[in-house]
Design the sequence.
């Protein structure tokens, strides 16, 4: 059996660390946890390129106790630009783990897989991945971790194999697989799972984490995810919301802005363009690479011209 897992994003902060422990135990208890199963990770095994010792220990425990064979594709979150190496190399000496940090083609259960990891930087990847050899072109499957041409990224449409993309968390063309564990707000409400390629079906994963929106004063119902992450809207103050919902995992608190309506309704308010809004937004972001910002700006400009 061949199983594919989208971005795992193992992280040490609560409740994500506890959720990953449960997920790892769930995998170890499955019938498919045997020597005949090949488990392919599509990248971003860790959330941080500098995982804590506790995060490494937990994943080492899981991999060491698993009977499956693992192929770990390097993702952008696995790459440390400071150390110039991948965090998943921590597992390089495990006999049942193969680390894939460079593009290659491998045969697994009689099928060929072209593996295209997140590799160095966008410029290098674009030059490399737009002119791959016949071996890559004719592979049965393509597993990769970057934005392809459907996401205004690297054009690999010339590759003939069925594609399985990591990196893009929400489901869309070429990135159809679900996330194994919900890792952020824009994934809320989506089913979690891993993919059984051999039988062409999704294996559902328990809902360990999900995000929920509540008005201040609402009671938190039972029957949510094991670790519900809540957003509190229209709170009179942050401190009051923290006290009222102190027994819950709080993702965000939005305090009532009494001047908001007055500001919005002023007839002389200057209308901000989409591009201006984007420029203001990225001032507070220090996690975007320059090439990502440039491509996003070009895309926003094109949409403004269309309108």
Sequence:
């Amino acid at each position: 059996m061949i199983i594919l897992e989208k971005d795992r994003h193992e992280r040490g902060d609560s409740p994500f660390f506890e959720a990953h422990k449960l997920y790892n135990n769930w995998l170890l208890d499955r019938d498919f946890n045997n020597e005949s199963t090949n488990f392919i990770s599509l990248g971003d095994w860790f959330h941080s390129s500098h995982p804590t010792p506790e995060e490494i220990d937990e994943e080492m425990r899981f991999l060491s106790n698993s009977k499956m064979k693992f192929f770990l594709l390097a993702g952008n979150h696995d790459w440390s630009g400071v150390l110039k190496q991948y965090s998943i190399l921590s597992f390089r000496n495990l006999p049942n783990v193969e680390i894939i940090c460079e593009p290659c083609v491998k045969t697994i259960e009689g099928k060929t897989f072209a593996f295209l990891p997140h590799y160095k930087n966008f410029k290098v990847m674009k030059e490399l991945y737009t002119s791959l050899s016949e071996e890559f072109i004719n592979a049965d499957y393509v597993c990769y971790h970057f934005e392809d041409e459907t996401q205004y990224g690297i054009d690999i449409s010339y590759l003939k194999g069925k594609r399985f993309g990591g990196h893009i968390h929400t489901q869309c063309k070429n990135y159809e697989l679900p996330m194994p564990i919900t890792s952020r707000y824009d994934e809320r409400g989506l089913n979690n799972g891993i993919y059984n390629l051999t039988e062409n079906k999704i294996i559902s994963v328990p809902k360990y984490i999900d995000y929920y929106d509540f008005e201040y004063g609402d009671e938190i119902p039972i029957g949510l995810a094991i670790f519900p992450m809540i957003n509190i809207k229209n709170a009179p103050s942050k401190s009051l919301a923290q006290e009222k919902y102190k027994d819950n995992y709080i993702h965000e608190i939005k305090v009532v802005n009494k001047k908001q309506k007055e500001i919005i309704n002023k007839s002389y308010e200057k209308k901000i363009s989409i591009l201006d809004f984007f420029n203001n937004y990225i001032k507070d972001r220090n996690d975007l690479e320059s090439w990502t910002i440039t491509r996003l700006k070009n895309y926003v400009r094109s949409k403004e011209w269309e309108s």
